[in-house]
Each structure stands twice: as C-alpha cells, then as structure tokens.
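Async update (no meeting this week)

Hi team, since we skipped the sync, here's where things stand on the single-chain job. The sequence we agreed to prioritize is pasted below, unchanged from the tracker. I ran it this morning and attached the output directly underneath so nobody has to dig for it. Comments welcome in thread, and please keep replies under the output.
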Amino acid sequence: MIDDYILETDNLVKEFKGFVAVGGVSLKVRRGSIHALIGPNGAGKTTCFNLLTKFLVPTRGTIRYQGIDITRDQPAQIARRGIVRSFQISAVFPHLTVQENVRIALQRKLGNSFHFWRSDRTLARLDGRAHELLAEVGLEAYAQMVAVELPYGRKRALEIATTLALEPELMLLDEPTQGMGHEDVDRVMQLIKKVAAKRTILMVEHNMKVVAGISDTITVLARGSVLAEGPYAEISAHPKVIEAYMGTEHVD
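Output:
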C-alpha cells in the first residue's frame, strides 16, 4: 500500500552556533497535494527548504521521503530520488533560446549529463519532449526566443519547465510569484495548479492570494517552529497566526 504522505519530517532542528533557526519542525506532505509553507520573515521557511534538499545538514531530526530515511543523503541523491527544488536545476541560461534551455535540462536522458559540445543532431532527439514541456507551461510560441528577452512571468514558467524536465515527483518551489505583477501571478498560479495534477508541490510563498487560491494544506512557521497547520479557512482565522502576521502581512 502506498503511504498517503510522500514527505515527512520528525522534530527537524537546525542550530547555528546556539541560534535555533528551525526548532523541532514536523511536517507531513500529502501525496498529490499543494502544500504551502508560510510565515513572517525570519520564520525559518528557507532554512527548512535547505534542510529538505540537503544544502544544510540537520542538527537533529529525521526526513523521510516515500517512507525512506533520507536524512543523510547528499543533494545529488535527493534530486535522483525525485525531489527537485526550482532554483536548483532551473537556472535559466539567458543567451540560449527557450527551447535550448529545456533541452539542456533534458540531456540527462542521454545518459551523459550536460555535454555542451555534443552535436545538434544528437541533441535534436530531445526536441519532441522539449516541445511537450513548453506546451505544458504555455511557452510553445516562445520556443525560439532568447531567454533573456522573456517577460519576467514567462521566465518563471521556463524555470518550471526545466524543473519538469527532471520528472520530479516532489517539486519544491521557493517564492514562485515573487516580484510579479497581477497578470503574471495569475498565470503562474494556474500553471502551478496544472503541473500539480501529476505530482506533489511544496512551496514557500508570501502572496496570500496564491496561498489561498491553490493550497490544499498550509503550515505556518514562526520563530523556527510550527505555529499552525490546516486549510486556508482555518489558518486565516487562527488567533496565533493573525498575531504573528500583525504589522507585517495580513492573512485575510
């Protein structure tokens, strides 16, 4: 029987020379869901992401993925297991085309990693899948545009396409709508909902419209610990959550 939860942490702690950045966080991310991690600045959200992707080593606690203890795995092992963080793999090459960016992300399919010197003919076999991914994120019309010329919101869609090229089961999205105007935010919200149909998403996000609009479960962090967890309607009415956001950002 497949476990309902794809990712679980138990009493995850990260200390920096006596400062507790993450203090006993226990998370359960349900398979096939969109799970948001929110909280005021300094709450420990990014540190949690860094622990999950092994950019940081936990001081204490355990991380389980698909029921397997991955607490001591290296970052490359984490990615091979199917956990991909948006910025880890989706750095856009600004002077390559949109299609070339996705094709580079697909090169691992050839079994020889990122060999930039390979011939166009060899890499052309990846074009079909590259076009499928671009269509999935609404960028098929931009395939031959140089990435640096893309509007900001479309560039974030390209980053998601390059992440999808690794066929992740769990996508960790770090502030996917940061710095966007309303139109781009709406477009990326719909894109996240679309790609979540086939996979699980854990995201850090400040925009409460996004959190309210697409999240199944929300975990609120404050001072490195879990303050509350549940659906948006429950979280937005939680007295401690309202107090934590007072003077920074309202949750309504």
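Quick observations from my side:
The chain has a mean pLDDT of 88.
The chain is about 35% helix and 25% strand.
Reply here if anything looks off.
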